[in-house]
Amino acid sequence: MDKVGYYRRNALPLEMHKVCIVQKTEILPVEDRVKAIRRAGFNSYRIDSVDVYLDMLTDSGVNAMTNEQLGAMMIGDDAYAGSKTYFRLAEKIKDIFNKDYFLPVHQGRACEHMLALAYVQPKPGSIVPMNFQFGTSVGKIKYCGGDFVICLREEGLERQSSDPFKGDFDLEKLEKVLKEQGDNVAFVRIEAGTNLIGGQPISLDNMLAVSELCKKYKVISILDASLLQDNLHFIKTRENAYQEKSIREIVRTMSDAMDIIYFSARKLGFGRGGAIILNDKKEFEYIKTFVSSFEGFPTFGGMSVKEMEAIRVGLDDTMDENIIAQGPQFIEYLANELEDAGIPVVTPPGGLGCHLDASKFVPHIARTDYPAGALAAAVYIASGARGMERGGIDEPWEDPNVEPYGAMELVRLAVPRRVYTVSQMNYLIDRICWLYDNRELIGGLHFETEGPHNFYDALDSNSDWPERLAEKFRADFGESL
Ligand SMILES: Cc1ncc(COP(=O)(O)O)c(C=O)c1O
Q: Is the Cβ atom of 390 under 6 angstroms away from ligand 1?
């Protein structure tokens, strides 16, 4: 990564791209933001995008694409079977991941569906050990009759820490599971980086050790590389043994150790789609049968050829240190500035987004009143930025009579790559600082209907706290939006 020093400041993220195409955006007045969040049932998934100034809900399918990606889309070969586009992308995948076979699918969760059909469904009651769960991954495993076991090190769940690789497996725990469960293990899933614990990375040494254990116990290793680009940046910058290695060399080492790799190209590759890649021809032919039944003919698998061409170019971009540094640098800037202002955020800063720790930001709100959901709504009222609740509202119900509460109450402010500028981050930091100083005005939420709830269901405020927050905003900011 190129280093750029400053004369008057310690550091500032610096964009290594210029903007060629822009999309107009607006900030609604605070009173209208209160109306919009009420219309949306206090759920940021339900806010119309026209009402949003900074869309920080997710990094999925919303990263800025390059002129070269858009150009490549024009040469897509729309043949139903045997398309040139398929072979071009397969060649790029071979070049980067050194694996011979590739199956396209429509997005990351489709990879998970195919793999669960292939390896979990034939073994009812089997388990999948993983460093951490992700909703779509475990959803497919359970749907196919299996279950999952979390093997994260305990330190991974500490919200404030200086541990550089909070996504690492507890290798002893994993080995115990592999030893005790033997044939009952469908595969081991390695998530790099880990979405639900704040985009925290896993070290390459830990991945290699997991792969060795898989070989020892003759279990398939499957890498979920959806968030790999941030993870690669962290391996390069935080893991001493690999600082002299190029990103391509790091990917090659990692890839050679894994049996199967899949990714959501909505995240990796700056496009929209998904891919399963592997070396074993027999396994490829086997998984292909599911792709052709559920996704599409195996040379497009539910993806548009335009997207496949864009991913081909995007994968090369992912090998560029300056390009993949942008997201983590912006997230680090956001997290450091907020932390310096005394605001509780998840540390060290990870990939994907900056995570506010709602249980410390609004400790006066009980878990039953959804602190992270309330804080996400308050951030929207204060700034027009929509983040994502990562707490009790998001937690899937196992038992229809028992409301679950997750390990953490976080608000994720995702940083789509190359979409926003440093001045927009400074605006957001300013509004969150104001909100923190007025945090006692934020109240709780309740669902409008009886459970079990979904993360996209509507809620309501427990009082008129949103209106009172807006009144205070008006008093402090005068005419300002
Ligand atoms: C780690 C991880 N795996 C899988 C997925 C699923 O990908 P998709 O949203 O493309 O279905 C995601 C999406 O956020 C993810 O973060």
A: no
How many alpha carbons fall within 13 Å on the CB side of residue 191?
A: 28
Ligand 1 center–CA 134 separation, angstroms: 8
Region 89-118: mean pLDDT is 98
Tell me the average pLDDT across 468-475: 98
Q: Which fold has domain 30-59+321-477?
A: Aspartate Aminotransferase, domain 1 (3.90.1150)
Residue for token digits 């040379």? Answer: 299
Percent of the chain with pLDDT over 70: 100
Q: Tell how strand 385-386 and strand 54-55 pair up.
A: parallel
The tens digit of pLDDT for each residue in 237-276 reads: 999 999 999 999 999 999 999 999 999 999 998 899 999 9
Extract the tokens encoding 345.
């955020």
Residue ID of nearest Cα to ligand 1 atom 16: 195
CATH of domain 67-318: 3.40.640.10
108 Cβ closer than 6 Å to some ligand 1 atom: yes
| Residue 318 beta carbon below 6 angstroms from any ligand 1 atom | no
Q: How far is the CA of 480 from the centre of ligand 1 (A)?
A: 38
Q: What percent of the chain has pLDDT over 90?
A: 92
Looking at every residue in the chain, the average pLDDT score rounds to 96
Integer Cα distance of 121 and 453 in angstroms: 27
Q: What is the arithmetic mean of pLDDT over 30-37? A: 98
114 and 290 Cβ atoms separated by less than 8 Å: yes
How is the chain split into domains, by residue range? Answer: 30-59+321-477, 67-318
Taking the model in full, what pTM does it have? 0.96
Residue 191 CB less than 6 A away from ligand 1:
yes
Tell me the CA distances in angstroms from 274 to 14, 52, 94, 263, one per residue in order. 30, 28, 16, 6
pLDDT in tens, 355-392: 999 999 999 999 999 999 999 999 999 999 999 999 99
Note the pLDDT of residue 379: 98
pLDDT-derived band at 480, boundaries 50, 70, 90: very high
Q: Which of 237, 274, 321, 227 is nearest to 103 (CA)?
A: 274
Task: Kindly state the average pLDDT of the residues 102-106.
Answer: 98
Nearest CA to ligand 1 atom 9: 108
